[in-house]
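Hi C.,

You asked whether I'd gotten around to modeling the 102-residue construct. I have! Everything is below, sequence then structure, no commentary in between.
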Amino acid sequence: MSNDIVPHINVIIAMIEKARENTLASVNTELIKLYWNAEEYLSNEKARSSWGDSFIDSLADNIKENYPEIKGFNRRGLYRMLQFYETYKNNKNVSPLVTQIS
């Protein structure tokens, strides 16, 4: 490899690395928004539902049975999401911050 190509390779590698970083940040942002929205939905449904806690259990079982490739939405994960949301839903600073976390 000639020495005159090395600076060009470094520029391209820097572009690739920056694009990878941006991609990961975008994916993380979308996942955080998904979790917050799912938490809000679960909280509202649990409050409206006559099922109470069994609503979450049934949802977790259904996801596990019908969508086994989806991870993190098991019983424990759903309850943690619900707990996080219910702890911070009235904090006016958390919702905007959640969407900014990458």
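If it helps when you're writing up: The chain has four helices and no strands.

Thanks,
B.
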